[in-house]
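Reminder to self: tokens first, then the designed residues, so the page reads top to bottom the way the pipeline ran.
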């Protein structure tokens, strides 16, 4: 069995809003469904979510400082 390679992806959403919650669930389900359909893929997308707190610029700059 091949070793899985992790591919980190940042995801900034307003987790307090309905659209942010729905987006997070939809994206996670899509990734899960994709890998269920393609079990032989060794690269795995790993989401790292951040809450924008309704301030996308502040959330983006905070993420940049952490990387």
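Designed residues (67 positions):
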């Amino acid at each position: 069995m091949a070793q899985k390679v992790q591919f980190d992806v940042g995801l900034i959403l307003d987790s307090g809003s309905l659209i942010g919650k729905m987006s997070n669930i939809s994206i996670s389900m899509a990734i899960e469904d994709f890998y269920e359909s393609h079990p032989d893929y060794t690269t795995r997308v790993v989401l790292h979510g951040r809450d924008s707190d309704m301030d996308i610029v502040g959330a983006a700059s905070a993420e940049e400082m952490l990387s």
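DSSP finds two helices and two strands in the chain.
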